[in-house]
Amino acid sequence: xxxxxxxxKEVEVDEEGYLVDLSQWNEDIAKYMAVEEKVxxxxxxxxVVNFLREYYAEYQIxxxxxxxxxxxxxxxxxxxxxxKYLYELFPYGPAKQACKIAGLxxxxxxx
Amino acid sequence: xxxxxxxxxxxxxxKKFMFLNRKAPHGTVYALEGLxxxxxxxxxxxxxxxxxxxxxxxxxxxxxxxxxxxxxxxSKTYRAxxxxxxxxxYVDRAxxxxxxxxxxxxxxxxxxxxxxxxxxxxxxxxxxxxx
Lengths: 111, 131
Fold this sequence. Notes:
Chain A is mainly α. Chain A has helices at 27-36, 43-59, 65-76, 83-89, 94-101; strands at residues 3-6, 9-12. In chain A, 49% of the residues lie in helices and 7% in strands. Chain B is globular, with a radius of gyration of 15 Å. Chain B starts with a helix and ends with a strand. Chain A binds chain B through residues 58-61, 63-64, 66-67, 70-71, 108-109, 111, and chain B through 1, 3, 36, 39-40, 42-43, 72-74, 76-77, 79-80, 83-84.
């Protein structure tokens, strides 16, 4: 699998650019992935990214977008737990893009 | 993946799917692969039931530690099923008894069923897939 150099560290990514070893993740990697995805990271993006990392730690999977939306609504309120808000932050799919930035694998069943 | 195909030949059709889990969580890929299929099925808004029987009941055990065998512990993922609207989890009473397990040993809430109840539930299904 391909290796990329991020802030002086060699990290392995899969053919779609997802981080292979979750434990290597750090903020530099998140920023690198965000540039790849053409996402300008704001505090609102970080909130979703951190939420995903917590979700993964608890359940050992990257959630499907529908599940992510619902879970965010529960934790951060309905004004954030909806498709419009999340797609504005991550136009090419909140589950797909935010998971990549969070260093998680691509969500199961994500097409 | 096959998302388009599904929409073409059956949009809005909800079938009753039962996934029968019969094997221990590790040592084969059945349990993990079965779980992935369940999560994908949920994305298509189907009526999903999960049954754990024989050594499959071990999949739901609390306190699984996979460090020694160097594989991922996916048992926590069963707790995510609720978020996927998969709430019909059944275990076979005889399988639990034979292994000295009770509901308190499991990481999720389940309905314990007798052979007869299980038979009826199975008869109601459109699709039964065994892992």
